[in-house]
Amino acid sequence: MNNTKQLLEDYTNGNRNFMATKLQEVGLEGINLSGADFSNSDFSDADLMNTNLCGVNLSNANLSGANLVGANLSEANLKGAKLCEANLSNANLSGANLSQIDANRAFLFGANLSQANLNRAFLFSASLSYACLIQASIKYVSLIGANLVGADLSYADLTGSYLIVTDLSSANLSHANLSLVDLNSSNLSGADLTKANFNSADLSSANLSHANLSLVDLSSAKLVDVILPDGIDYQTLCKS
User: Fold this and answer.
1) Which of 23, 29, 38, 194 is the S-S candidate for 49 at Cβ 3.0 to 4.6 Å?
2) Mean pLDDT throughout 142-162?
3) Is 6 exposed, middle or buried (0-12, 13-18, 19+ CB in 10 A)?
4) What is the pTM of this model?
């Protein structure tokens, strides 16, 4: 199906099955498509700005380069979808299934990902600055070189993820689970790490200057060449 008008007519008439639909570069901005099944569909370079995709099935869909600024994807299923270089700034992805997505170099500035499932996702060099990831499941995710400046990851579970050379400056990681996380050479300056769990994490060469380390758990963490906040020495930190 390449006809946008036909798609909208079918949706209005109650059809929700649009599996494997080809909609490259289509313009569907501001349209309501909630509850539809677009699994295995191709939305590459499509304009879906402010589109209502609440509860939509986009599993294994191709959304590379798509404009999803301000789109509503709450509770949507995007498992295995391709989102490389897609723009999801200020999009609502709360409660969405984003497991195993390929979102390398995607732009998610200010996006709402609270309680979303991002397990085993690829977000290499993605921009998630000021995104909301409260209580998100981010296990075994590749966030190498990603930008998470000012992001809210409080109570998130990042077990086993890769955040090498990742910018987490001024991020909120209070109560987050970062056990087994690789944070080698990451920037955590000014971050809130209150009651965060870094059990067996690798913080080698990480920058923790001006970070809040209140009640942080660093048991068995690797702290070689870590940069600490003023007034905190290595021995004190290891005993925390």
Assistant:
1) 29
2) 98
3) exposed
4) 0.94
